[in-house]
Amino acid sequence: MFKTFRLRLFISYLALSAAVLATAFFLVYQRIESAELSSLRSKLSEEASLVSAQLRSSDLASPGINGLAHSLGSKLRSRLTLINADGRVLADSELDDAAVKTMENHLDRPEVSGALEGSASYDLRRSVTLGKVMLYAAYPVSSGGHIGAVARLAVPAEQLEAARAILKKALLAALALSLLLSFFLSIAVSAGFSRPFDKIVYASKKFAVGDFSYKIQKDFHGEMGKLAETLNSMSAAIEENLKRVELQSQQLAAAFENMAEGVLMTGPDARLTALNPAIERMFGVKAESSISKPLLEIIPNASLSGICSRAISGRKAVSEETEFSSPIKGIFSVNASPMFRGGDVSGCLMVLHDVTEVRRLEDKRRDFVANVSHELKTPLTAIRGYVETLMEGAINDKENAMEFLGVIHAQAKRLDNIVSDLLKLSSLESYADRVKKEDVGLKYLADSLIAGLSSVFNAKKASVSNLLPVSLRVNADPEKLGQVFINLLDNAVKFSTEVPKVEISAQELPGAVKISVKDNGIGIPQEHLARVFERFYRADKARSREMGGTGLGLSIVKHVVELHGGSVGVESAEGLGSTFWFNLPK
Fold it and tell me: Which of 114, 167, 292, 414 is the most exposed place for a label (fewest CB within 10 A)?
């Protein structure tokens, strides 16, 4: 009902003031009424004592006693009744002799019985004779040392009631004035007390909606002032803490959103509660449609679900590598850690790192080491065998010795070619050998390289056709681009039929140019096409080694083209020749 503190405070002060004033009114009224009654009693008692003093025993027995009572009652303006010691009424100032004789015995009247005991006595009651409320005061009349009669004075209660009415009006007027003053005083006091309280409530509402810049004006003192100061300090501390928490939250959110690793969180029941964009990219799922669903339903991989379950049930971190076949293919390193709240496991945090490429590169590295070892071992074994033969005496056989030395020289040259190509490839892969681009005319570059390889082509009776347009120019490193042409042309002649035919052509593409080197050679089986650009990979190992190849030429081609921002490829069919091509940006 009373909704505001100010109203409640006002009503409380007003109610308290009203209660105090009402109590004071009652007490003052009672006290004044008692004093008024006491004064009236005292007056009647004095008058009764005067009457008692004037009466003699002869007067009490005189036939004119009733006239004396009338005379004295008229003077005192009160009703005077003279009562014998036995309670019989002797005279009454309000009645004649005949009426007095008919009055009942008054011995049982309280004031009469009290006066007969020797002291003034009083009573307030309704008179049977007069039929109205009267105040009685009785005083003993002594004669010869004993009480012979009682003089009783009576006044109507209207006098007392009139005095009471006047007193009540005066006190009620005073009470009304006091209540009015209390009303305005309560308004002033409640306003004074509620003003700082209202300011504090207003500030609290500001703080509740996050406006911690608001400060309470401390224009009041005491406990409210201390409270205002405390609230201002608290709001400043909360604002600082919120800024720190918001910054940390933003940092965590940024890390969560931009991590290359996939991050997902589940509840204790293995249902997803959060996942980052990396998970969405990896598995082609959407966060909004995945939340609250079982992990196994979103990413159907029993191994991943099992890792999550073991982390939750075991209450400790689990790290494993697992291979995915659906919805994507790859190898992932999974780190799962249980999350705790109040000592209980509240879920699981999982970090997935795609190590497919790492494992592929490790496999390639192992293959590379094995291939290098194998490629180097063949010429080294040949060199060692012929050297041992020469050392055992064949050096003295000049005819065979020269043949052996020729083989050693050829194998040493092969080793030199392998090492040279390895160094080129290493330089290209490490970007230590930067490209130095310039405007290059592809037809002139190809013509100069064909002329340089003329001895090789003539030995094989090969015909090379350069169909590149004279106007075709690119921004490239001519030296490195020359390595590409040399390797492709050399392979085209090596792996061709008895009469090799090689054709160099170009095709315009949007933003790029495609250069093709086509031959009529033995072709490449379909199962080998995807790997021909790998280091030391040979589709026909025996023939390749016989022709002195290192197995690194096409790998060098791929790296040079990629350094220029292009790509390479091959189209071939066994027995129908091959077409190697590469794209370069215009």
Answer: 292
